[in-house]
Every structure is written in structure tokens, then in C-alpha cells.
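Subject: for your reference before the review

Hello V.,

The reviewers asked for a structural picture of the protein, and I figured it would be easier to keep everything in one thread rather than splitting it across files. Below is the amino acid sequence we used in the manuscript, unchanged from the supplementary table.
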Amino acid sequence: MGKIQISLCLLFAGVLPLAAQRYEAIPFGDFEHWTVRHIKESAILGGATTTLYVVGPDKVFDGNRAYDYAKTPWASSNAYARVSGITKTSLSVEPDEGPDGRCAKLTTVLTSCKAAGVVDINALATGSLYWGKLFEPITGTRNPFANMDWGIPFTKRPRALVLDYRAELPASGMLTRASSFRVTQFPGKDPCQVTLILQHRWEDEQGNVHAERVGTAFYRISRSTPGWVKGHRIPVWYGDASQMPGYQSYMGLIQGKRALWTVNSKGKRVPILEEKWAAADVPVTHAVLQLSSGSSEEFTGEPGNTLWVDNLRLEYER
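And here is what came back from the structure prediction:
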């Protein structure tokens, strides 16, 4: 009887930490629901009707029109562009079958835009899902981050981001850059990346948007997985993440050319000036969550990188 009592004590001792946790599902984070968009490309490109997907309510939209993100926090790298009067689309995020329903499939793709049967321009797109909005139609390739409104209002303080994922990476050791008429290759690696950053933002009288980094969670996937990794936990560091064990330079403040953009109170697109690390107890006002099939700079990556994600949730103290 004594041994049984000791065993039960040990069992419950192992369960107690789990009881201190609770999880909140992220809206549409089970990736069971998708909006389907049918967009007709310009006749000079062949005039095909293409399909784009948005993580959001189950609806179908026909016609070349901008998407209204009022009912979903999710935008993606799927692009509806109209440049110099020519309509073109790009698909790098789509639904797929997972082990327990649908999931999201993110792929790094290299596409060629052909006008009248002649290759006119090449573009590499990294499959990406993120909290925010995409301004459509896209009218150019200069400064692609300015085409996005990054992040959503958010005031909670999760302990971790939890998700299921699977990855396939060619891992050739070569990267491709393509954003114009030339395609170049050079040595490098392009891990998949999952990011959650929590910010305290404010706007000054001139309309500049400033931010301090309150919480940081990064995870890179540098090799293919043998199958699905279930319940992977990415802890959120509060305060100065650069002082945390395991910190890497890519987790740093997002500044300069890498700056994310938003819309200020005057309706103008401006960069988010993430200026410093906040104290751990500074209130959170916004969150940026991004899932990506690569982690290189814009228009650069390894074609074929594929990341499947499912069942996103946030972990909190009970």
C-alpha cells in the first residue's frame, strides 16, 4: 500500500504543472476554413482564371477585387497584383489535408511571368501567413513590406505559442534571388520560421508609429521532419530577449530596411519604428504572428521549401 501511495504521489506531481496551463485557440488557427477567390489574369498573360486562398470564413468570391480582412486576422503572401494595367496572381499558401482535417501548406515558389508567350519577369515568393492585412491590388515590387499592415491589436501575455507542423526542405545549400529579369543563385540556407512578437506601440504628433518589443518568440526549422511534430511549444521571452540564453541575432529588433509597416491614424502607410527592448512589465498593445516557409530577405529563398502548420494555440497560466 505504501508503494502505491508513493507512486500516486509521483504521478500527480507530474500532472500538476500541466494543470497550471490553459490554452486559447487562435481564430481560424485550425485551418479548417478558407475563403476562395477566383481572379482573372490579363489576356496578355493568357487570361486564365486563377484561385487564391485566404484563411477565413468559408466563402467564394469571383472577380478582380480587393479582399476585406474585417472577419479574419490572417493575411498571406498570396498576391493579387495589377502593375502597369496587367493583372497577375501568385499562389504560395493553400489548404491541404493534415492528419486530423485540413491544414495550411506554405511553399517557396519561383514563378515566371510570360507576356505574349515570352518570359518577361521572374519572381520568388516565400509562403507566408501573418496577422495583418495586404493592400490590394499590389502595384509594384519596391519595398514589399509597405504593401502590408503588420500585426493586430492585442493586449494579452501568453507564455508560449503552440502548434503542429511538418517540413520538407531541399537543403541544397543554394539560395535563389528573383525579383526582376534576372535569376541569381548563391550559397546559403533558408530555414522555415515561426515568429510571434508582442509590441507596445504609440503614434507621435507627426504620425510616426513607434514600438518597443515586449515579448519575443522565434523558432527556425532547418531540416525536413519525418512526419508531423505535434504540440511543439515556442516560449515567449519578455523584456530584453538579447539577454536570454539561446538568443540569436535574427530575433533582434526589426529596424531599417527590415522594418514592418502599418497604417497610422491619418490613413498613411508608415514603417513601425521598433526602437528598443521594453521592460518585461510594459503593457502589450499589438502582436505580430508570422509562419513562413523561409527566413531570407525578400525575393530570396530556396524553391521547394514547404511548411505545413496546424492547430495553433496560445498557452497561458491558468
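For the response letter, the relevant points are probably these. The mean pLDDT is 91. The helical segments are 2-19.

Happy to draft the paragraph if you're swamped.

O.
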